[in-house]
Amino acid sequence: MTGSEDSPSFRLAYVPGVTPAKWVRIWNERLPDVPLTLLQVPAAQASDVLRGGDADAGVLRLPVDRTVFSAIPLYTEATVVVVPKDHLLTAADEVTLEDLADEVVLHPLDDVLGWERPPGQPAFERPATTEDAVELVAAGVGVLVVPQSLARLHHRRDLTFRQVADAPQSSVVLSWPEEAATDLVEDFIGIVRGRTVNSTRGRTPSSRDPKGERGTTADARRKPGEGKQGGRAAAGAAGRTGGKSTGGTAKKTGGAARGGRSGSPKSGGSGSGGAKRGRPRRRS
Questions:
Q1: 127-131, 195-199, 231-235: which is most confident
Q2: What pLDDT, on the 0 to 100 scale, is given for residue 114?
Q3: How far, in Å, CA of 230 to CA of 276, rounded?
Q4: Is the pTM of this model over 0.70?
Q5: How far apart are CA 145 and CA 81, in angstroms?
Q6: How far apart are CA 22 and CA 6, in angstroms?
Q7: Helix, strand, coil proportions of the chain in percent (round to 5)?
């Protein structure tokens, strides 16, 4: 996190092939006062960027040094082979490493699959980057095995790709220095994990408020309870008061009734409105 406490910001590093646009959109909706800066970095340099404090967190490819960084798995990519559109391998929907045995398989210096031994026949020279290797595939020099996102990133109209069923796969994680976890990192973790803005996991809604208006949500949650308690208290008080008042009225009414019975029949017949009305007596 950079800037002062009044103007925080969040820096997210990401490697080629990763598309953090959805997470950035949700961040901007939830934390509009905290700008998020994206830093695209080569996969081989991503850990150094985090270690040096140039980013608060990063969407990286495994492996990462777990003695220094925390990491949350996000997804694992399919692996594909990039070939010219008229290549024989395009006849199948899926291929295996054995199908590549007779192919010249390019192995760029920035490879992210971590082969123990790359498949196929080695090229005369290793390309410097994946982008350079894609150009060589287009020139008919060989084929290239990469995560599917990199094949899409470097897409060309004259090339296509097919999934390689038994090739190593690349796993993508959200990572940050373990000793540099911040509240904003927790906010981003919640976003990539799909938590709602009111989730009780991680930071509370009040602590996420960048303007410092704390306690508003908690107070709002307490008010209904306080209202119920107050209502019950008021109802109890009213019951107690009503009971006494009713008792007093009953006594007075009883006195009036007794007084009515001791008076003349006419007076008794025209008693107060509180007396019950009955059916008129039949005259004998």
A1: 127-131
A2: 86
A3: 38
A4: no
A5: 4
A6: 26
A7: 40, 20, 40
Reduced to 3 states (helix: H, G, I; strand: E, B; else coil), residue 73 is strand
What is the three-class DSSP state of 200? coil
Query: Where would I find the beta strands (DSSP E) of 207-278?
Result: none
What is the residue whose two structure tokens read 């006062």?
Answer: 33
Q: How far apart are CA 273 and CA 264, in angstroms?
A: 17
Res. 251 pLDDT band, cuts 50 70 90: very low
Q: Are strands 143-147 and 104-106 parallel, antiparallel or unpaired?
A: parallel
User: What is the C-alpha to C-alpha distance for residues 152 and 21, in angstroms, rounded to an integer?
Assistant: 16
Query: Could you give the CA distance from residue 123 to residue 138 in angstroms, rounded to a whole number?
Result: 15
Structure tokens at 220: 């709002």
Closest CA to 97 of 86, 105, 108, 109: 105
Phi first, then psi, for residue 240 (nearest 5°) are -65, -45
Mean of the pLDDT values across residues 25-51? Answer: 94
Q: Are strands 143-147 and 79-84 parallel, antiparallel or unpaired?
A: antiparallel
Query: Residue 17, SS3?
Result: coil
CA distances for 26 relative to 20, 29, 57, 194, angstroms: 10, 5, 16, 10
- pLDDT bracket for residue 277 (50, 70, 90): low
